[in-house]
Design goal:
By secondary structure, this protein is mainly β. The protein has strands at residues 7-15, 21-25, 30-41, 47-55, 60-70, 74-77, 83-85, 90-95, 101-111.
């Protein structure tokens, strides 16, 4: 069995769809720190974005940003500070148009 690295940085990118989907799940044996999150609207009109976290401990889906409007050819940071995820927690994202919004997230995974 391989040891879990003490600190591991990750970058996750995703093109949004109209379905709320999990783009990152905190793996077993680690706590994750979301240190940056940004969504860019590459479309030709304004778009709406929602982010939430599913907390596996209480089976609760908690909104982080709900229905945030992003002007065309602009971007929005959805992380003001840091967000801690525990094993099994899921970061979810959803847009209102197909393939017009792209997000990037920086994550620090820490071994428990």
């Amino acid at each position: 069995m391989a040891a879990i690295p003490l600190n591991k940085f990750k970058t996750v990118t995703h093109t949004l769809t109209t379905a709320k989907v999990g783009i990152y799940t905190c793996p077993p044996g680690v706590s994750s720190l979301i240190i940056y999150g940004n969504v860019a609207n590459v479309g030709t009109s304004s778009s709406v974005t929602s982010f939430s976290v599913y907390h596996s401990r209480g089976a609760v889906d908690t909104p982080v940003v709900e229905l945030a409007r992003v002007p065309h050819q602009d971007a929005m940071s959805f992380m003001d500070g840091r967000l801690v995820l525990e094993t099994g927690d899921v970061l979810k994202i959803q847009g209102d148009f197909l393939n017009t919004q792209k997000c990037i997230i920086s994550i620090l995974e820490n071994a428990k």
